[in-house]
Design goal:
The complex is a heterodimer of chains A (about 180) and B (about 425).
Chain A (H helix, E strand, L loop, with lengths): L8 H8 L6 E5 L2 E5 L5 H10 L7 E9 L14 E9 L4 E9 L5 E3 L8 H12 L2 E3 L35 H6 L7
Parallel strand pairs in A: 2-5, 6-7
Antiparallel strand pairs in A: 1-2, 3-4, 4-5
Chain B lengths: L4 H5 L34 E5 L11 E7 L2 E8 L7 H5 L8 H5 L6 H16 L5 H29 L3 H22 L8 E2 L2 E2 L7 H23 L3 H7 L7 H6 L4 H5 L7 H4 L20 H25 L18 H4 L3 H12 L8 E8 L2 E9 L5 E7 L1 H7 L1 H5 L4 H10 L4 H5 L1
Antiparallel strand pairs in B: 1-2, 2-3, 4-5, 6-7, 7-8
Helix pairs in contact in B: 4-5, 5-6, 5-12, 5-17, 6-7, 7-12
The chains are: A alpha/beta (about 180), B mainly alpha (about 425).
Chain lengths: ~180, ~425
């Protein structure tokens, strides 16, 4: 059996889905492809199934919060990012797919139909970062207790201490306290 | 007087059905996850753990049982969640190293290694050759250490008590070596960004050589007790079969994947830290059952001995054991009395640390349990925006239902042992 030659992931995606707008980021030899969140399942399935790419293995799903207090999103399109780390065992290389999600609507489709192993990664992100995965069958919390409120990995979640409240930041602090109005 | 007795003792009558309602959680959350028969009381819901001795820590498994047969299996983790990923975000990069020790407490050097490698990639820091070989010695000792604990507890779960005592005897010897090189038996924090903490003390290499001389015979002892033992074979062969395609789909790695016959080892496939110079084999199983995973790990210990023997020969006598890049790595103590610049670097690195670009990297290494990955996103400042550890135990526990459904309860003990989980690794 001959192995098809490896394709450049970004060029192959451009040729296969010409109507799709996406960005490519190269850093220290790692390729990130930033896709719109509506297309993540289609893109993931394309990278898994296409000969010459065959990213058959989902290593990891991770999430980032670009909260403004810590530098902010800058020119990024949204507050949250979800990063999917794919691995092609045949070509021995990795690829990162990334979606950015807005602050007021952190929802993305689940990739569970593509990789069953995404199950707990997505549950963990929902639990700790509060990003909802549409279509995920199990919406229980994974790490935190079932009656926990809030999502601890968000950057505006207090880290063992409270931000000192002054008149200039009182509104901002109260906005992120679900229990403040009681 | 008499009629108020019930109110005083707190005893009241119970109304309503008693089958599923004895389950204290929200029953509706379980709909779709267990079969419909659980709601009519036909099958039984049973908690195994979180304090069950064979769940290796604090894993709770919610079992739906038909007699002794497992109909569905819902692992529940988080009892050891310590928020390490969150805590690292508030520390400078160097100060995150001791926290990584505490995730997978049986393989601390692997965690140090993956976190250090991620930072080295993020700031483009070089690692001297001697440090790479020293890291490999630490990593392979960690692998043997972790496999010894696994073998001892796995055998203990299945009723072989003496193996446990033998394994912990040898593990004690490795912990003594860790104490010699790092000052700590378990929480080593030895591998740092740019190299290792300090050079090997002179008494370490003779002790390591003595260990490598006697250890292969000790592996023979374990094998005499288990490998051909009919009771062991009866308990493990054909149990918990994981087909290779399912193992890949569920993200299994390490011996759990190789036991299913997939030849994938990051040390061979994507070599890091000069692993490409070493000559070793990757043991691969055939059937994907508990026995094959057990035997893969036994053979892996023998391969680790081979790697260590080569590493002793390759280890350069002279040379730096950490990077000379003073912007990221501490100057040696001897320079502080002579160089003003060294004092400045020392002060800057211990107070504010170093800055990294506002970018992200992902690196993965082959830990004793499988692919251990680290995703680090910098802020442009001295603290990370996000550190995520992709831990193999987490993924393997999520694949537990695939292996265990349809088996008996007693087999679940064997299966949990065979995927070598550490709950600190899973929950972080």
């Amino acid at each position: 059996m001959t192995i098809p030659t490896a394709l450049d992931p970004a060029a192959a995606l451009k040729a296969a889905m010409p109507e799709l707008t996406f960005d490519v980021d190269e850093f220290r030899g790692e390729t990130s492809i930033i896709v719109p969140r509506e297309q993540i399942v289609a893109v993931a399935r394309y990278f898994r199934d296409t000969p010459g790419l065959v990213y058959n293995f989902l290593s990891d799903i991770s999430s980032v919060d670009f909260y403004e207090q810590y530098g902010g999103y800058g020119d990024r399109p949204g507050r949250y990012a979800v990063a999917y780390h794919l691995l092609s065992m045949l070509y021995r290389r990795r690829l990162r797919l990334k979606v950015y999600l807005p602050e007021d609507d952190p929802v993305v489709d689940t990739v569970l139909p593509v990789w069953p192993g995404a199950n707990w990664f997505e549950r963990e992100i929902w639990d700790l970062m509060g990003i909802e995965f549409r279509g995920h069958p199990d919406r229980r919390r994974l790490m935190m207790p079932d009656d926990w409120e809030g999502h601890p990995l968000r950057r505006d979640y207090p880290l063992g201490y409270e931000t000192v409240m002054f008149s200039f930041n009182a509104d901002e602090i109260m906005k992120h306290k679900p229990f403040a109005d009681e | 007087m008499g009629q108020s007795f019930g109110a005083v003792s707190g005893i009241t009558d119970v109304d309503g059905p008693t089958s599923v309602s004895t389950w204290e959680g929200n029953v509706d959350e379980l709909r779709g996850l267990v079969s419909e028969r659980a709601f009519t009381g036909e099958t039984m819901l049973l908690n195994m753990g979180p304090h069950h001795p064979s769940t290796h820590g604090v894993l709770r498994v919610l079992l739906e049982l038909d007699g002794e047969e497992i109909v569905s299996c819902l692992p529940d983790v988080g009892y050891l969640h310590t928020g390490i990923e969150k805590t690292i975000e508030a520390k400078t990069y160097e100060k995150g190293i001791p926290l990584t020790d505490r995730t997978d407490y049986l393989a601390p050097m692997s965690n140090n290694m993956v976190y250090s490698m991620a930072i080295e990639k993020l700031v483009d820091l070089d690692v001297p050759y001697k440090a790479q070989i020293m890291r490999i010695i630490g990593l392979e000792l960690t692998r043997i250490n972790s496999h010894l604990v696994w073998l001892g507890t796995h055998a203990l779960d299945l009723g072989a008590m003496s193996v446990f005592l033998y394994c912990f005897r040898e593990r004690e010897y490795i912990l003594e070596m860790f104490e010699i090189i790092s000052g700590q038996r378990m929480m080593t924090s030895y591998i740092r960004p740019g190299g290792v903490w300090r050079d090997f003390p002179p008494e370490f290499l003779p002790k390591l050589q003595a260990f490598l001389d006697f250890f292969p015979r000790r592996i023979d002892d374990y094998e005499n007790l288990l490998t051909g033992n009919p009771l062991w074979i009866e308990r493990t062969q054909g149990v918990g079969i994981l087909e290779p395609d399912k193992a890949l789909a569920w993200g299994c790695t390490g011996p759990t994947l190789r036991g299913s016959g997939v030849n994938w080892d990051l040390r061979k496939a994507v070599p890091y830290s000069s692993y490409e110079e070493f000559d070793f084999d990757v043991p691969v199983g055939e059937h994907g059952d508990v026995y094959d995973r057990f035997y893969c790990r036994i053979l892996e210990m023998r391969e680790s001995v081979k790697i260590l023997q080569q590493a002793i020969k390759k280890l350069p006598a002279k040379g730096p054991y950490r990077s000379e890049n003073r912007k990221y790595v501490m100057p040696p103590r001897s320079e502080l009395g002579q160089s003003m610049e060294a004092v400045i670097h020392h002060f800057k690195l211990w107070t504010e640390g170093f800055a990294t670009p506002d970018k992200d990297v992902y690196v993965a290494i082959e830990s004793p349990r499988g692919e251990l990955g680290c995703y680090v996103h910098g802020t442009g400042g001295n603290k990370p925006r996000r550190v995520h550890l992709r831990t193999p135990s987490f993924v393997h526990i999520s694949a537990l239902p695939v292996m265990s459904e349809g088996h008996l309860i007693a087999d679940l003990v064997a299966i949990i042992g065979s995927i070598d989980i550490v709950l600190g690794d899973c929950d972080r």
